[in-house]
Amino acid sequence: MLTETLPVANAPDALPATQPIELTINGQKRQFRLAPWTTLLDALREYANLTGTKKGCDHGQCGACTVLIDGKRVNSCLTLAVMHEDHAITTIEGLADSATGQFHPLQQAFIDHDAFQCGYCTPGQICSAVGMLNEGKVENKADQIRELMSGNLCRCGAYPHIVDAIQEVMKKER
Amino acid sequence: MIGKPISRVDGPEKVTGQAKYAAEFNVPDLTYGVVVSSTITKGTITRIDTTKALALEGVLEVFTHKNRPKTAWFDMSYKDQDSPPGSPFRPLHDDQVKYNGQPIALVVADTFEVARYAATLIEVDYDAEPCETDLLKHLHEARDPESGVANVFKPLPPKPRGNSAAAYANAPVSMSARYIHGMQHHNPMEMFATTVEYGRNGKLTIYDKTQGATNSQLYVTQAFNLSFDQVRVVSPYVGGGFGSGLRPQYQLFLAVMAARALKRSVRVSLTRQQMWSFGHRPATVQNIRLAADSDGKLAAVEHEAIAETSQFEDYTETVVNWTGKLYDCPNSTLSYKLKSLDMYSPLDMRAPGGVTGVHAIECAIDELAYKAGIDPLDFRFKNYSEKDWTEKDKPYSSKELRACFTQGAERFGWSNRTPEPRSMRRGHTLIGWGMATGIWDASQVPARAEAVLTVNGKLRVSSATADIGTGTYTIMTQIAAELLGMPLENVIFRLGDTDMPLAPIQGGSWTAATVGSAVKVTCEALAKKLFKLARKMPGSPLAGADFDDVFFASSHIRLRRDPSLSVSLQAIVDQNGGRAISETGTSLPNVLKQKDYSRSAHAAAFVEVEVDEDFGTVVVTRAVSAVAAGRILNPKTARSQIIGGMVWGISSALQEESIMDHRYGRYMNHNLAEYHIPVCADVRDLDVIFVEEVDDIVNPLGVKGVGEVGLVAMPAAIANAVFHATGKRIHDLPIQLDKLL
Ligand code: FES
Ligand code: FES
After folding, report:
1. B463, B374 Cβ separation under 8 angstroms
2. Rounded to a whole number, what is the distance in Å from the CA of B225 to chain A's nearest CA?
3. N or C: which terminal CB in chain B sees fewer CB atoms within 10 Å?
4. Residue B117 in contact with partner chain A when CB distance is under 8 A
């Protein structure tokens, strides 16, 4: 007869207290009280009510949670909210032009090219594409885009249209 | 409107992050549930200690089999619209563990952070028993499946005909092979989640990840003995399903149970690892023997499949019947068997059975064509079936597969292929070209819809169906706009809410036909009602006209003989005392018309692979799918469906497999880093052709669903291309480099 116990490693009886933090999200300063081990992803989704950023794995394996931190693409599930008090965080909700409400060119191109089906990976794909363009390493070549967009999984398989959408935006921005 | 490449009407919400999925309804005073999963596969829980978790500040309750509230007694109460025969799994039912990863506790706390931590503090002891999870070890114990209602849509094999064994023995050309694929998991990008909002008088509003809000509602009302008006299920957006949402998953049960016990709103989201703790595409072993006469006509066909199921339900798929539909051979034996193992019941996964069976038969046909010295495409023309012997020799309601072959081959450049394996190269890499046939059901079931002309002259249409990325929102909007002659921006289609008229689960590629027909009959009924009202209006230019004398265009009802004579839809509602005008309708399949025909969508896939001989790596460099699926309502969204299916084909052929350590009955790669699915770099040049196909039998719209047919042909086409490149017949999927080295 086998017996198995779930291992519980030196579990503390009480948890550290929550603490006040301030984040700058989409140009707005916002205050929260969070447990220090709250991920940026959970802070956005559960505390800031910005659910456009998606959770697809919580382990840095899918890219659904991609946001821009000071313009760089980051998996928000792999970083803690408390680490970003001094940074500018941009989520999918903040990509459209705040004055005119006009979509970011990538948002429009994704619609035009049908670059998604269920839409769940889409905010991450778009933020990742914005980050990729900011990196400035990519010429408008499909191979290169495919390689540099491979951190964002799409189970619906919209990849060919995602590449088309990005290429169109790059062509226009030339 | 119908047939135009309209951009998805839900696009703006999806690209701005406004589309809300099940775990994103942030209702007030929400609590969070985290599931604890079993670490053994079979046995008894002897101790489960929740003290430490309960002592933590913020933890509200820990539910286990010992303290769970009472739920319904009979098995019947846990059945859903997609239940196979057997006894459905009941979460936290008792101390028995039936599979690895089974939910054994739910920790509920004020915050997700606390609940997740508390879940690690639950201590569990088990009496583990040896488990059996390896299908290959138990093939000799396979048995006939129990049949049930599920087999209406998933027929079991027909009786054999002719004498396949004798024909096989006497034919000049023959082949035999065994094909195996392992387990696969759906893994939509959105994890399963349910948010239960606990309302006044205990009324539940449930935001659930499901392919059928009505299915979740049925399940909850029965399992918890609640009336329909106490349970509303809402599911406007679903982050992919692929079949995984056809049955209510256990987080729904747990979230409802906790919400009722605590009288609080509760959200339960599964982790990515827990996405391996319910249904999967079952591992399946297939044996095929084929023979042909000297002119390449099939003389014998034998196709046997053995699949796994759980110990508690007989999940079945239609695996071998496709062979009979595609190849009308006088000597055919088809069989399908099951073996129960210590795992969760398998679950329909995109083109269930079709991907499995067609992979095997289409690889076998390629092999036989080679043995007969005939081009694989010519071989298929020679053996083209005009009728379906698995359905009493009925003719097809429509079958433009020939056109798929011709147009696909043309676009791909098939005639430039040199037939000998290893005969095509690009520098150091081997090039292979392969092709295969695809087929999928074209079903229709009953559904209801409502259409309302609102006071401000807009059209609002609804049905409790789903859009799992399929384009339902868009195509229904198009159908409604066309029928009432209104611009798209004045038409809104809503779905995914049990307060709307009844629709079935979204599966089997039947939504376009099913809900589309309901929207059609409902809008037609509304059109008639509007016409009657318009005719009665004072001084109406339509007075004295019949319905056949008018048409609907630019938001007006117009006379055919003089379109300038018209009544605007806005004027009709205005005349109606400022009240909206509505109509509900039900569409039923026209069984009398359909019953004499076999109804399927068809496809042909042509694929080029590059194989690196030193590394054994395979890349699909380009592929063309030619699809015959009746009328295409929206070529833009339909193309995405087919491309998605093709990507799934690449995945199934080359990448994905859930690997189990059979000593423990446990998945070893249950995460997205180790369970490989294609990334952007794996997907190159994919092309789609929709061939013209007219079908007035399948349903009033003449449509056949396109969610699954694009996948079916791909795995075999890829395997055949790998053979052409390397000279190696790889019968088992996925074809990874170890098989080629
Ligand atoms: S959720 Fe962050 S990478 Fe998957
Ligand atoms: S659109 Fe569904 S996962 Fe990418």
Report:
1. no
2. 32
3. C
4. yes
Rounded to two decimals, the pTM is 0.97
The CATH number of B396-443+597-741 is 3.30.365.10
Residue with tokens 């053994």: B40
CA distance A83 to chain B (A): 17
Contact residues on chain A for B188, CB-CB shorter than 8 A: 118, 120, 155
When the candidates are 3.30.450.20, 3.30.365.10, 3.40.228.10, 3.90.1150.10, the CATH number that belongs to B447-588 is 3.30.365.10
CATH number for the domain spanning A166: value is 1.10.150.120
Task: Work out which ligand 2 atom sits closest to the CA atom of A125.
Answer: 4
Hey, what are B617's tokens? Answer: 């790596």
Which of A42, A68, A94 is a domain's end point? A94
B112 interface with A at CB cutoff 8 Å: yes
Which of A94, A126, A141 is the last residue before a domain boundary?
A94
Arithmetic mean of pLDDT, A90-109: 95
pLDDT number for residue B183: 98
What is the per-residue pLDDT for B219? 97
Structure tokens at B370: 């080679």
Q: Quick check: CB of A58 below 6 Å from ligand 1?
A: yes
Domain B396-443+597-741 identical in fold to domain B447-588: yes
How high is the pLDDT of residue B26?
A: 97
Q: Which of B258, B116, B110, B270 is nearest to B188 (CA)?
A: B270
DSSP letters, B599-627, are: -EEEEEEEEEEEE-TTT--EEEEEEEEEE
pLDDT at A5: 46
> pLDDT tens, B322-333?
999 999 999 999
Cα(A93)–Cα(B464) distance, rounded to whole angstroms? 28
User: Does residue A77 have its Cβ closer than 6 Å to ligand 1?
Assistant: yes
Six-digit token pair at B687?
């092309």
Q: Of ligand 2's atoms, which has the minimum distance to the CA of residue B239?
A: 2
Mean pLDDT, chain B, whole residue set: 97
Q: pLDDT-based confidence at A1, cuts 50/70/90?
A: very low
ipTM, two decimals: 0.97
Q: Is the confidence at residue B315, as pLDDT, over 60? A: yes
